[in-house]
Each structure stands twice: as structure tokens, then as C-alpha cells.
């Protein structure tokens, strides 16, 4: 379902968005992002089949703890942690297709061997951020349609300043509404399952400011 997105995919879109940092217009004077509208979910959605398989192998990664907060309080410390970890994992993981890696069309996994594709980057980011003390419930695996009209997985971070996207295609952490993606579905915050994002389309990002 999900195609490989290498750091140097050769498209103008990727070249523009591979600049580290967050766009200046998404940040306040403190460097913490300004508030943005959250992404609205509506109704149940079928989980990706590879997610279901992953949950059978790693059930602890899929459980929803409703005692955790739904959103992260986005302090300067939390933002610094998110930015640093996102960039670090984007550097650490060697991009490889599931066909090359596992001999199957689609497999989701924590990339313990240092190799993976889009969903594997996102799963590792979620795991590492949870280990750093951020609530797993506020960090949601999310399926989108990207600028190449292909299925793609990202990690959506829900915060008190809006929802942001951690992506293996760029180090910039963008508000969900500034990615240019079509949002299909994401993990539910209320039960083990997925919820629809209604195919919400966001404006194409033309440039990224340092």
C-alpha cells in the first residue's frame, strides 16, 4: 500500500521540504509553534491490514490507554525533544521498500535493524517519544495520500497548539494543514482501532522558510 519515500526522491516538492526546522510562519517568537486548528476525525475506519498484523506481533504498541492525555502540552522542552528526535530518526534509518526488506508488499514494524519505509520511521518515532515521557495516546499513526498520489504514513502529534506531522520525507515539522497531503485516517484515541479523517485535502506547500 505504501511506496518508499527516499530522502532524495528527485521531486521539487521533496527538495523544498527537506530543510530542517519548522516554517517561520508556524512558530511564535519563542520557537514553539503557534496554535493551529486540529484535524477533525469522524466515524470508524478500517485499520490498514499491515497495522493489524503488526498489532498481533506487538500488541503493547497498539493499546490505547484512556488515562493518558489526548494532547501534549507543547512546552519548549517538549518541542525541542520532538524536533531533535524527528531529525535523528530520519538520519538513522536506511530507506528500503518492504519488498526489498521483507519480500512482501506491505509490512509495518519497529525498524530494529535500522532499515524501513515510511510507517516504520513513524512507529519508531512514536516509540522513542513515548520512552521520552510523551503520552502515546497523543501520537497517532496516520494514513495520507501524498503529492505523488501514493499512500503514505506519518505520525500525527496532537498538542494544545494544534496537530503536527512528523514525516520521513522532511525534517521540518509542519502543522497538519500545511503538508499538502490528503488525510485518510488515523489511529483512534478512544479504542484500539482507526478513525476516518474524511479525505480532507490540505494546500500544497510551495516553499519552506528557514
TrEMBL record:
Signal peptide residue numbers: 1-26
Gene3D superfamilies tied to this protein: 3.10.620.30
The name this protein goes by in its record: Transglutaminase-like cysteine peptidase
Claim: Signal is one of the keywords in the record: yes
PANTHER family: BLR5470 PROTEIN, PTHR39327
The organism of origin for this protein: Bosea minatitlanensis
Keywords assigned: Signal
Amino acid at each position: 500500500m505504501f511506496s518508499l519515500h527516499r530522502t532524495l526522491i528527485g521531486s521539487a516538492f521533496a527538495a523544498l521540504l527537506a530543510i530542517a526546522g519548522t516554517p517561520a510562519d508556524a512558530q511564535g517568537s519563542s520557537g514553539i509553534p503557534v496554535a493551529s486548528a486540529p484535524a477533525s476525525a469522524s466515524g470508524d475506519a478500517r485499520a490498514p491490514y499491515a497495522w493489524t498484523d503488526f498489532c498481533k506481533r506487538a500488541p503493547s504498541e497498539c493499546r490505547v490507554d484512556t488515562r493518558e492525555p489526548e494532547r501534549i502540552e507543547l512546552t519548549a522542552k517538549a518541542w525541542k525533544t520532538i524536533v531533535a528526535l524527528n531529525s535523528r530518526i530520519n538520519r538513522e534509518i536506511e530507506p528500503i521498500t518492504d519488498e526489498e526488506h521483507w519480500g512482501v508488499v506491505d509490512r509495518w514494524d519497529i525498524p530494529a535493524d535500522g532499515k524501513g519505509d515510511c510507517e516504520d520511521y513513524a512507529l519508531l518515532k512514536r516509540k522513542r517519544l513515548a520512552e521520552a515521557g510523551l503520552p502515546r495516546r497523543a501520537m497517532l499513526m496516520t494514513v495520507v495520500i501524498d503529492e505523488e498520489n501514493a499512500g503514505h504514513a506519518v505520525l500525527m502529534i496532537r498538542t494544545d497548539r494544534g496537530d503536527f506531522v512528523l514525516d520521513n520525507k522532511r525534517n521540518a515539522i509542519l502543522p497538519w494543514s500545511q503538508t499538502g497531503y490528503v488525510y485518510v485516517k488515523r489511529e483512534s484515541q478512544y479504542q484500539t482501532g482507526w478513525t476516518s479523517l474524511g479525505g480532507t485535502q490540505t494546500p500544497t506547500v510551495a516553499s519552506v522558510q528557514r
